[in-house]
């Protein structure tokens, strides 16, 4: 139990240190970031303009769906063709496919862990 207390104290100390760093350097970082990206800022930044931009983004994304749908089916067709000709598959291509599958599985596992509240067993302590 003492080990848990010392870990908690160390974590609290690191959190306080990070908070002090953010408080000291946060304003300067924000100012620099906004200066570098001022060409992206709509002036004046009103609620109405934000709502308008939000709607534009939403409908632009919707308008891009047919192109994405078509690209998906092209990719799917090329995958089917690759599967048909799998006897001609090179070791490098199989390795890339295996790594892609492992990456998908890892992201799935990570999503499960996040969904359980960052616990490995599913039980909250």
What features would you describe in this structure?
78% of the residues lie in helices and 0% in strands. The protein has 125 residues and is mainly α. It folds into 3 domains: 1-32; 47-84; 90-117.
What's this entry about, in short?
This protein has 125 residues and is mainly alpha-helical. The protein has helices at 2-36, 47-84, 91-115.
Topology:
Blueprint: H1 2-36, H2 47-84, H3 91-115
Distance between the termini: 14 Å
Q: How many separate domains make up the residues?
A: 3
Overall mean pLDDT stands at 87
Q: Radius of gyration, rounded?
A: 25 Å
Order of helices and strands: HHH
Number of H/I helices: 3
Give the DSSP E fraction (strand runs of 2 or more residues): under 5%
Number of strand elements? 0
Features:
3 domains, 3 helices, mainly alpha, 125 residues
């Amino acid at each position: 139990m003492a080990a848990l207390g010392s870990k908690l104290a160390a974590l609290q100390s690191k959190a306080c240190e990070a908070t002090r760093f953010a408080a000291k350097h946060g304003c300067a970082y924000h100012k620099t970031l906004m200066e570098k990206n001022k060409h992206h800022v709509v002036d004046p930044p009103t609620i109405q303009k934000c709502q308008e931009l939000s709607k534009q983004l939403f409908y632009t994304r919707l308008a891009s769906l047919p192109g994405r749908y078509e690209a998906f089916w092209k990719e799917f067709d090329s995958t089917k063709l690759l599967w048909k000709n799998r006897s001609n598959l090179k070791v490098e291509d199989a390795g890339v496919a295996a790594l892609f599958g492992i990456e998908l599985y890892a992201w799935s596992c990570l999503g499960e862990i996040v969904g359980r509240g960052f616990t490995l067993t599913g039980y909250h302590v």
